[in-house]
Amino acid sequence: MDFLLSEDQLSLKETIRHFAQKEIQPLIKESDEKGKWPDVLTKKLAELGLLGIIIPPEYSGCGYSYIDYVIILEEISKVDPSVGLVVAAHNSLCSNHLNLFGTPDQKKKYLTRLASGQTLGAWALTESGAGSDAAAMKSRAERKGDHWLLNGTKLFITNGSLAEICVVMAVTNPAKGRNGISAFILEKGMPGFRPGKKEDKLGIRASDTSELIFEDVKVPADNLLGKENEGYRGAMAILDGGRVSIAGFSLGVAAGALEAALKYAKERVQFDQPIANFQAIQWMLADGFTELDAARLLTYRAAFLEDQGKKIPKESAMAKLFASELAVRASSNAVQILAGYGFTKDYPVEKFYRDSKLGTIGEGTSEIQRWIIAQKVLSEY
């Protein structure tokens, strides 16, 4: 068992760190204030291969491992979590669903465009009445000869109004419940397919989060992704990998907040000495960095097992739960360490604080992660 990153991984980490500081950092303030994705960044991410991280080279991807993927997400999110989330949703949800369940023709037509960065991708599962209870969705797809007729509305979709390719889950056999849900590939411009309300969010503001509306959308039969009525099972498998990506995202949030707090604590002088000399500050930093290492190990384990082709519902849930809740604690403590300055936009910790909460909600709430873990533990022991 090797706890050290390889030379290639260390080099990758440094490359992404440099990219994030040079290309992402200057865009943060404006994109956060306006709540708008900086379009110029899509091309820059694509040029570095960051829109095809885990996709095989034959489909224009980099073919990186999941551990590499986590390294990338942490370094990006340490600078701007909004960008980390966009990269995660594009890669591990939309693109990976096509990668794992698409036909060769579907991969050639759609996956190549996604991995090469010609467009961003979206993945649509959540609805207003189907959040944690995803199987309660109301969107319907009815077979009509050589096409499916899709109707419904999806909610809180990352990249929703920006994506040109979207994987959508819909009910195809209402009598079968979760075993009657299928996945479909939709393209921007299909008649009846349009974005709805764009959310004005607490954090992760540069990431586009929108409603998607389907009104009698004719989806070609060839755009069924995976087997009919097996879309829910596929979506749950995709979410296992997606939760690893949210854990990686949360590592970045926590690391960014802790490093900013550490820097400030060394520089801020009160009572004739740096506040880093005071035990109260030291304990917050000690706990934060210890928990960060623990979260990173949980996340790397889940990523390693994903690379081995193992089923990882428990491991991915553990990693996401621990890392995301750490991000909230660490960013809150960072604001506390900076005190009044931490409450202003002159320092990055207030943004980490706002951005951190998404990790405990997206791709399954902390409560759902605990439920998944408990079910596995109860069945294993």
Question: How does this structure look, described?
Answer:
Helices cover 51% and strands 15% of the residues. By secondary structure, the protein is an alpha+beta fold. It has a four-stranded mixed β-sheet. It has a four-stranded antiparallel β-sheet with strand order 2-3-7-6, with helices on one face. A two-stranded antiparallel sheet has the order 9-10. Strand 9 (269-270) and strand 10 form a beta hairpin. The radius of gyration is 21 Å and the shape is globular. It starts with 6 loop residues before the first helix and ends with a helix.
Q: Roughly what fraction of the amino acids lie in strands?
A: 15-25%
| CATH class call of the largest domain | Mainly Alpha
How do the strands line up in the largest sheet? 1-4-5-8
Query: Low-confidence spans: pLDDT under 50, at least 5 residues?
Result: none
The third-level CATH topology of the largest domain is Butyryl-CoA Dehydrogenase, subunit A, domain 3
Q: What overall form do the CA principal axes indicate? A: globular
Number of strands: 10
Tell me the helix content. Answer: 40-55%
Total helical elements = 11
CATH H level of the largest domain: which superfamily? Butyryl-CoA Dehydrogenase, subunit A, domain 3
- Biggest β-sheet, characterized? 4 strands, mixed
Distance between the termini: 25 Å
CATH architecture designation of the largest domain: Up-down Bundle
- Average residue-wise pLDDT: 98
